[in-house]
Amino acid sequence: FMEFKEIIKRAEKIKEAYAYLNKVEGYKPWGLEEHVQGLVGDVGDLTKLMMAREGFRFFDENDVDAGMAKELADCLLSVIMIALELNVDLEKEFFKNIKKLEDGISERKAIKRK
């Protein structure tokens, strides 16, 4: 498996390739707003698959779980693209957030023991 930094570098290469492809094909380049809209679309697709999995929607393919896995990966890519647009060090922020959550869990466990 790839390290977090490698995943972000691959996503950055994809972002650059799409920017070039869009330019060559005469489309506008995607920026922050378009990547956020892409994320919203990906989350919507994931939601539809979740509903299909629970029997609330029709899904015309056999493997709903595979579709959900693909959409989760699309959501991750969209989040990375947004972070790149905002010059956010996503790896740093992710681990900072995880540490905060872990500390919060530890504090709640300590409170419960009293």
How does this structure look, described?
With 114 residues, the protein is an all-alpha fold. The protein is 79% helix and 0% strand. It has four helices and no strands. The protein starts with a helix and ends with a helix.
> How would you spell out the order of helices and strands?
HHHH
Strand content: under 5%
Number of strands: 0
SSE class: mainly alpha
Low-confidence stretches: none
Alpha plus pi helix count: 4
Short overview:
The chain is an all-alpha fold. The protein has helices at 4-25, 32-53, 64-85, 90-113.
Keywords:
114 residues, mainly alpha, 0% strand, flat
List the helices and strands and how they pair.
Elements: H1 4-25, H2 32-53, H3 64-85, H4 90-113
Helix pairs in contact: 1-3, 2-3
